[in-house]
Amino acid sequence: MSQTSNTADDRKGVPRGIVLGLRQNFPQFLLLVAINALVGGTLGQERTVLPLLADEVFQLDRYTGALTFILAFGLAKAGTNYFAGTLSDRYGRKPVLVAGWLIAIPVPLLLILGPTWGWIIAANVILGISQGLTWSTTVVMKMDLVGPSRRGLAMGFNEAAGYLGVAATALASGYIAAEYGLRPGPFLLGAAFIALGLGLSVVFVRETHQHAKVEAANHESVHAHAGSLSNGEVFTLTSFRDRSLSSISQAGMVNNLNDGLAWGLFPILFAAAGLSIERIGILAAVYPAVWGAGQLVTGGLSDRIGRKWLIVGGMIVQGVALGMVAAGDTFGVWLAAAILLGAGTAMVYPTLLAAIGDVAHPEWRARSVGAYRLWRDGGFAVGALLSGLLADAFGIPTAVAVVAALTAASGLVVAVRMRGDDHLRTSTR
Q: Cα(32)–Cα(205) distance, rounded to whole angstroms?
């Protein structure tokens, strides 16, 4: 399905000759997929190594202290997500993407050279800002290019690329750390990814804001509010007032709450059970690998069967997987749990983004995506604090069990509150 601007659109200030559709924009779409894999790789350099660095190099013996890097990352990324949509509407998508890569340049140096834990916190604040700009912008640019009919598939490819990048780098960094030590080897990967991502973004990425204008000129919104809304109105609709948007926002926050738990505490739990760094690296990689690859299926599936029940099912599957982690004490059980956790997250992650696109009007969609991603990545910070405090007080298995219950409960909220037919009510005139 494609869509081009017409004479009437030209009178509205819409650029002439712009075509929407995955097939029609495939080279640029594929480039953005590759760039988001590099964005994910930049994050993946930390997944295996940083919790071990906190424990073995900086001797942070309380979980809450060790998780401060995730708290810093989550707060920085969440806040930047919110502003990324507004900035991309005001200045264009490409400048925001390039700025995100430029901001990331000091991160590997800080991680490699940092003599105190404060340097690691600073690196994660900078990384969070960078990820908020780069990842948010690739999401919006793919939505711009493909139009409404293949939005779930587009988000599946976007998130699959990002989290396969996370998984591959987590696995590679684990092996590098086992062979050469925790620093500097694993973080040299991140430096290479930043250089390549910046170069591709500057030289080859094209602006896509005009594609959103074409869609807006031909858009029949699910929502009563079409056209311009203030930033505050968009935030309120996305966060509280709209049944579907607010359900999506809370589910996204809880999803990343449990991901923050997995990122910060799973490697420590596995190490305490006597697993080698190589096996910890495998477990740290399998979860995002299944998550990433699964989205190649679940994103397009949500276009056909709808968003709601994939989200509900995915949150419940994640809760079951976390319960297995809490109860388990062997590599085999944890491997099965990691696979199941990845599968549940794959059901949810691209589906939530596509659902935002179903409801939000193209004129304010980028800002709605930013508000959603504010809540979603705020889950990193909530997860770091909650799981750290629970782990300090009651141990890691109890912390995991509590988060498992919260995750399943979030799925039930979606089942009760979210509309089930939003994906059917987005159309073009």
A: 8
pLDDT value of position 56:
81
pLDDT at 366: 82
The Cα–Cα gap between 359 and 259 comes to 26
Strands 19-20 and 3-4: antiparallel
pLDDT for 193: 96
Residue range 21-220+231-428 forms a domain whose CATH class is mainly alpha
pLDDT of amino acid 51: 79
Positions of the chain with pLDDT under 50: 1-11, 224, 426-429
Helix (H, G, I), strand (E, B) or coil at 327: helix
Domain residue ranges of the chain, discontinuous segments joined by +: 21-220+231-428
DSSP string, 231-263: HHHHHHIIIIISHHHHHHHHHHHHHHHHHHHHH
Element (H or E) spanning 370, and its range? Answer: helix 365-394
* Residue in the structure block whose two tokens are 């799981």: 387
**In DSSP terms, which residues pair with 20 in a beta bridge?**
3
pLDDT value at residue 4: 46
Structure-block tokens of residue 340: 């199941």
Question: Which contacts (CB < 8 Å, 24+ apart) does range 29-33 have?
Answer: 29/142, 29/145, 29/146, 29/154, 29/157, 31/200, 31/204, 31/205, 32/138, 32/141, 32/142, 32/145, 32/158, 32/205, 33/142, 33/157, 33/158, 33/161
Spatial distance between the Cα atoms of 312 and 250, rounded to a whole number of angstroms = 12
Going 6 to 8 to 9 to 15, the CA torsion angle's sign is positive
